[in-house]
Amino acid sequence: MRVSPLRSVPRVDLLIGLAIMALGTLEAFTVAESYGAAETPELWWVGQAVVTGVLVWYRRRSPVTVFILMILAQYMWHRQGYEQCPVWQLAALLIVFHTIGAHLPVRHGGPWGLAGILIFDSGAVDHRFLPFEEVIFLTVMFGSAYATGLALRGYLLRAHRMADRAARLEMERERRAAEAVAAERNRIARELHDVVAHSVSMMVMQAGALRRRMAVAREDGPGPEAAILSGIEQAGRDAVEELRIMLGALRMPQDEALPQPGLDMVPNLIATVASSGLRVTLETEGDPVRLAPGLDLSAYRIVQEALTNAVKYAGEADARIVVAYRPDRLDLEIADNGGRAATALSTGNGLIGMRERAELFGGRLEAGPRPEGGFRVHATLPIAQAAPMSEAAS
């Protein structure tokens, strides 16, 4: 879409140009004879005022061109026999001298400003010898206009430098804040390792000691309690290992690769929940492919969270895990036939976490009760083309 030329003109310049046009028109209809015109109104002044206002509109875009055209306009004005300069022309001249100082560096704008002052002081514009006091007046007037432009330019440059410095300081502050966060993460990791890992290890040791004591006390061999205690021991060891991995992630730089569990660890996950009474079967459809580490980890976490909730709510039931490798996606289905409330998992953090992991990779997750009873979690994760596991291993 084509933009109107006036849209690119700053509003202040648009208003100044319109004011010059209005002032020139007013003087043409009121005081033209006082400047040497044959009669009032002097209609051609209106056209010159309009041209001058238009030049002011584009003074920022082409300051040197507008500056030269304004001096030529003054030359043509005096060639008409006028000795005095009307107010609207004087205002326009002061504005373009100011613009030369404000929008050009001194090494470029200084020679132009000096040349303009000398042109007026020498009488080259009005073809007459100027008295000394008029030369001083013109020099001070046009020189002051140029100096105000220089002052404005210096102020804007300082403001720009201060803004850049503030931006650099803000970046430095954010960097230091990130370093402080990293240091705090390391501190938290050490404290978690010292407190949580030690407590879990003690629980595992106590469960193992109790299991062995009960095995010795029973003469007819280990009872069902031994399997439960053995499951507690295994879950505790897995928790300590998981804690070690996660604390390693806190301590290591973000760009370092960490060994994380993936779908190949699902059988071990099934073994850890076997003692809870949940009977789990695992099915794989399609040819397994090597997934990206992040996607592989998220898929494992979805299965892990779904199984954890099945253990909590399904009780002694049957659960089925289906891992389906499609050409463009990975489908995960975890379903059980246990009894639970219809709203289970509907507002839990587990479901939120699983959905976030799926959406992180552009996938989706559905979870809800099954019509025939139980609960079902289904996740679809898009995957890029990858080589089969057998080819990748070779």
From TrEMBL:
- Note the superkingdom of the native organism: Bacteria
Entry-linked InterPro entries: HATPase_C_sf (IPR036890), HATPase_dom (IPR003594), His_kinase_dom (IPR005467), Sensor_HK_TwoCompSys (IPR050482), Sig_transdc_His_kin_sub3_dim/P (IPR011712)
Q: Which CDD domains match?
A: HATPase_UhpB-NarQ-NarX-like
Main enzyme class: transferase
SUPFAM superfamilies cross-referenced by the UniProt entry: ATPase domain of HSP90 chaperone/DNA topoisomerase II/histidine kinase
- Protein name per Swiss-Prot or TrEMBL: histidine kinase
Q: Where is the Histidine kinase domain?
A: 301-385
The record's PANTHER family line, in alphabetical order, gives: NITRATE/NITRITE SENSOR PROTEIN NARX-RELATED, NITRATE_NITRITE SENSOR PROTEIN NARQ
Q: Give the EC number(s) listed in the UniProt record.
A: 2.7.13.3
- A Pfam family that this protein carries is HisKA_3
Q: Which taxonomic lineage is given here?
A: Bacteria, Bacillati, Actinomycetota, Actinomycetes, Streptosporangiales
Q: Which GO terms describe its cellular component?
A: membrane
